[in-house]
Amino acid sequence: MRPITYTLTTTIPEPVEVVFQALTDPHRMAQWLPSARAVEASGPIHMGTHIRVVYDTRTSEIEVVDFNPSTVFGWAERVGRRQWKTFFRLEFAGGSTQVTVQQVWTPPSWAAWLRVKFRPHRNVPSRLDGMVQNLRTVLAK
Question: For 98-119, what is each residue's pLDDT tens digit?
Fold first, then answer.
């Protein structure tokens, strides 16, 4: 099946560097990732870093697959939802940052596509909005 892309673009009233730091700090990731309880990384985040994320109901391992300091951060899930990739693009917008969050999913089957399409707890646009709202909260502290 072809990949399905979900995209959310919004503005956060903080400089690009501040937003990027919050996105890529493993100690702060659990604060903005929806349902995440803990995030463990072996060191600073860079291209190829593996990060373990403990959610309420599952554990996942993500690998950083796109990393350009201050503008781009992206990962692919290697354990858990293996067909999902998440990308953040940050752009200067005056004293604020335009944030584009994109999740790309390649459904392994029609049944998987139907489960995501019709189950409310798998509402991807809502999950992306939750990430951004949590990120705003983290940055406001």
Answer: 999 999 988 888 887 787 777 6
Q: For the segment 13-62, what is each residue's pLDDT rounded down to a tens digit? A: 999 999 999 999 998 999 999 889 999 998 889 999 999 999 888 899 99
> Where does 1-141 show beta strands of DSSP type E?
4-12, 36-41, 50-55, 59-68, 72-79, 84-93, 96-105
Maximum distance among all alpha carbons in the chain? Answer: 45
Residue 110's contacts (CB-CB under 8 Å, 6 or more residues apart) are 1
Question: Taking the model in full, what pTM does it have?
Answer: 0.87
Single-letter amino acid code for the residue at 71: T
Name the token pair of 118: 């019709």
Asked if residues 124 and 6 have their Cβ atoms less than 8 Å apart, the reply is yes
CA-only gyration radius of the chain, Å? 15
Distance CA 16, CA 44 (A): 19
